[in-house]
Amino acid sequence: MARSNTGGWLPWLGVALVVFIADQFTKVLIMGYYKLGDATRFTSFFNVVRAHNTGAAFSFLHDASGWQRWFFTAVGVAAAAFIIWLLRSHAGQRLFSFALALILGGAIGNVVDRLMHGYVVDFIQVHWRGWYFPAFNVADSAITVGAACLILDELMRVRGTRAAR
Q1: Where is 30: in which H helix or E strand?
Q2: Which of 18, 92, 107, 112 is buried most, with the most CB atoms less than 10 Å from its CB?
Q3: CA of 78: how far to CAs of 33, 66, 123, 156, in Å?
Q4: Do residues 88 and 5 make contact, with C-beta atoms less than 8 angstroms apart?
């Protein structure tokens, strides 16, 4: 059963808040216990490492002259505003709203990093046989899972398997 749109969007802000708090808490721990570049190997494929990303995903534009900090902050704020608008008008669509809430919490977490530090704190490092995936964080993970849920939501909508909109 779909939720009413009136007031139904506030719980999704709660989901975003949980993501934001988890993201910021883990970053505070990393910054408190690790210096830039420090790493701890946990398994043959997983490390915890402190890295700073002044760019966007996969360090895109990390070596720019500094303008990217404000550009990506503005993009994050604009995305957050748009997501809140979408949540208000589509709160009854559970998977869609859950996806947006994950993306919102992650986006705000990374915006706060950019404003406070000038970079995003990354610390999760996955690797396999000498190949290292770029370090990421809880916010990035939430954004990725949220994007996957948006794709799933759209596939379900197109196939007509979702309950009433």
Answers
A1: helix 10-33
A2: 107
A3: 33, 19, 26, 27
A4: yes
Active-site positions read 122, 140
DSSP string, 101-154: HHHHHHHHHHHHHHHHHSSEEEEEEEEETTEEPPPB-HHHHHHHHHHHHHHHHH
Whole-angstrom CA distances from 85 to 20, 60, 81 are 18, 28, 6
Instruction: Please name every residue paired with 126 in a beta bridge, in sequence order, or none if there are none.
Output: 46
**Residues 59-94: tens digit of each pLDDT:** 555 554 556 667 778 888 999 999 999 999 988 899
| pTM of the full structure | 0.85
Task: Dig out the tokens for 63 from the structure.
Answer: 């070596």
**Amino acid (one-letter) located at 78:** A
Provide the pLDDT confidence category of residue 162 given band limits of 50, 70 and 90: low
